[in-house]
């Protein structure tokens, strides 16, 4: 059975179970993660995080996930997945899941502020970790890049393109033409976003064009800093 449907079906039952018990058993413990090296960190175990976990599991790529929802954590644990309960913006919690030894982090939390805070913490305390984060909109993407994100992915782009491809297929367009149309639109859209972010003062751009770089322009020591009106919560 696919991972995400199972979690959706069993989440409510497991949530009610763990609401009646202490969540300490779901917290990260260093002894359970100290053998991890060059692993992937997944921050946020909702739909996107679960899909990433499934893909990594199928490829036998080591990972560890964090979420602040006990139902999601419990559902992941029920499948013997390394999912822990904790604050993704906490230096201590990130240390307990071996962030200093991780190679990358996929950040897909529920709110813009939570995503921003996680990027900020990783960039400040674990700067060697490449951070790939889901942005709710362009302004959010700019702020994430200022906080040090390696690459920002617009959350609505790919689902919209998949829907468009299905409609074009129904219109009897050849598959090769559909693929060409989708690719051209994607490249044009990301190019426009990159230019917009550049004019907004973002040092990296919007997308994967410079994913091997890390922005270091954000140096504040305040973990609750705001950037352009975005509050780190």
TrEMBL record:
Per the record's keyword annotation, is Repressor included, yes or no? no
* Keyword entries, A-Z: Antiport, Ion transport, Transport
Task: Kindly list the biological process annotations in GO that this record carries.
Answer: potassium ion transport
Return the InterPro entries for the record.
NAD(P)-bd_dom_sf (IPR036291), RCK_N (IPR003148)
What the entry lists under PROSITE patterns is as follows:
RCK_N
UniProt-listed PANTHER family: K(+) EFFLUX ANTIPORTER 1, CHLOROPLASTIC-RELATED, K(+) EFFLUX ANTIPORTER 3, CHLOROPLASTIC
Q: What's the name of the protein?
A: K(+) efflux antiporter 2 chloroplastic
Tell me the domain of life: Eukaryota
Task: Kindly give the Pfam families that the UniProt entry links to this protein.
Answer: TrkA_N (PF02254)
The molecular function GO annotations come to:
antiporter activity
Span of domain RCK N-terminal: 37-154
Q: Per the record's keyword annotation, is Transcription regulation included, yes or no?
A: no
Extract the SUPFAM superfamilies matched here: NAD(P)-binding Rossmann-fold domains
């Amino acid at each position: 059975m696919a991972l995400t449907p199972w979690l959706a079906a069993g989440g409510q039952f497991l949530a009610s179970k763990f609401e009646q018990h202490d969540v300490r058993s779901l917290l990260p413990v260093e002894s359970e993660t100290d053998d991890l090296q060059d692993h992937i960190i997944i921050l946020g175990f909702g739909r996107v995080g679960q899909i990433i976990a499934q893909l990594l599991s199928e490829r036998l790529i080591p990972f560890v996930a964090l979420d602040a929802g006990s139902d999601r954590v419990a559902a992941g644990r029920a499948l013997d997945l390394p999912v822990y309960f904790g604050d993704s913006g906490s230096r201590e919690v990130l240390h307990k899941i071996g962030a200093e030894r991780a190679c990358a982090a996929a950040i897909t939390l529920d709110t813009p502020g939570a995503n921003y805070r996680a990027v900020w913490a990783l960039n400040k305390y674990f700067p060697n970790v490449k951070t790939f984060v889901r942005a709710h909109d362009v302004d959010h993407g700019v702020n994430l890049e200022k906080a040090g994100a390696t690459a920002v992915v617009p959350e609505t782009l790919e689902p919209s393109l998949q829907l468009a491809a299905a409609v074009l297929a129904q219109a009897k367009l050849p598959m090769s033409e559909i693929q060409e149309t989708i690719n051209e639109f994607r490249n044009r859209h990301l190019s426009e976003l990159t230019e917009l972010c550049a004019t907004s003062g973002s040092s990296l751009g919007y997308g994967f064009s410079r994913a091997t770089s890390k922005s270091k322009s954000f140096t504040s020591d305040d973990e609750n800093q705001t950037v352009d009106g975005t509050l780190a919560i």
